[in-house]
Each structure stands twice: as C-alpha cells, then as structure tokens.
Amino acid sequence: MIKKLFAIVGLTLAIFAAQTGAGHPRGKHKVLYVTHSAGFKHEVLPVSEEVMKEIGARSGLFEVTATKDCSLLNRESLKQYDAVVFYTTGELPISDEQKAAFLDFIKSGKGFVGIHSATDTFYKWPEYGELIGGYFDQHPWHKEVTVRVEDQRHPATRHLPKSFQIKDEIYQFKDFSRQRVHVLLSLDTDSVDLTLPAVHRKDKDFALAWWRNYGKGRVFYSALGHREEVWRDARFQQLILGALAWAMNEKSAR
Question: What is the pTM of this model?
C-alpha cells in the first residue's frame, strides 16, 4: 500500500512538472523552510521537512533549506532565497531589524507560504497578521471533512475537483476578511457540527487556503497540514508545489 501511495505521489508530481514546464536544473529556486516552535510543537514537523525536500527534488523546481534557526531570517541571508515557508508557532525569536528585513524581502517580489500553524504565530506583531491574512482561533474539528474548491484556476488548486474529502485538524480564524485575501479552499459546513462550543464564527465562513499580494511579493496560506497522512497525500503535495511555484512567480506556473 505504501509503495502504491508513493508511486501515485511521484506520478502526480511528474504530471504537474510537465504541465507547468518544471524540470529545471536542481537548485534553480531556493526555499527557506522555517519550522521553529515557540509554542505548540507539531509532531509532523520532521515528516514535513522530508516531504518538502522531496517535492522540490521531484519537481526540479526548487531545493529546500529546512531549519529551526530563526537567525537565518536576516537581510543578508535572505538574499539567497526566492521564498520563505513557515510551519511555526508562537513569538519567534527575531529582532525588529529581522522583522523589517523579512517584510522587505516579500515586498521586493519574493514569496511567502504559510502552512497550518503559521497563523498561530506572531500574535504580538500586527504586520505579520496583515501579511498572512488572519490568526488561528481554535480548531473546532479534527475529522474527515468536505473541502470546497472555490477557485480551480490557481496553480495550487487546479488539480483538485470542485470538492474533496480529507481528514485533518480544521482551523477557524479571527482578524480574517475575504476583502483582504482571495480564498481558494473553504470548509463545507454541511460536513461538520456547527453547534460545538469552540465554533466562534457566526458567519459560518471557514476559509482553509488563500492568497494575496504583498507589495511586489506573493503570499499563500494553507490551513491544512496537521496530520502526517495529509503530508503524504499527493493532493496536498501538489497544492504545496503549485503554491510555491506561484509564490516564486515561476512563469510556467501562471
């Protein structure tokens, strides 16, 4: 079963690479994957680092530096990267100078991708909340749900059907507005219990993935990614590949 799953994953990524024109020499793009946990530490982080590197290698589009060392988020170090990815929690130990360098990096035309608990990060830094589009506000559900694909034209979602089922930890958000982001995925509320005490959003709007522009840069966020099975899922891997290709303004991914 495992061999079959990996075969499916490899085939899916190969098809995506052919469709987008990927297959560039290894290391054309460089991605900094930050997995520092200043709050809750997700067990899936080592698997995510492994899978992220595999996605880059299989596609030929990028190579990954996975790190928990936040000192790499400095102006000089960031010059070598085309995108930064966060799977983080809490108030990361970076200075005001590093924060400015990070925002300038994205504004200059680089990419930023946040995964799952990236919205459970930097609550005390309002500019980060604006950048990523919202903050974590509990996870009312951890079960198989139905996800609606609101936009099938984006490189991160064009491989998906109009809806699909997946088992994962499902976030809701505060300080979130559709007026600031373009929603790609959202929760089909018919697949969950909205009467649970942890459900706070009265508008029943539970976005699960979105994008936005930030200066000349591009920002993408996916709330999915808590479970190892999700990281091993070909659909999720292709979502991340498409998101990074788009965030790095890879022409073939447009």
Answer: 0.90
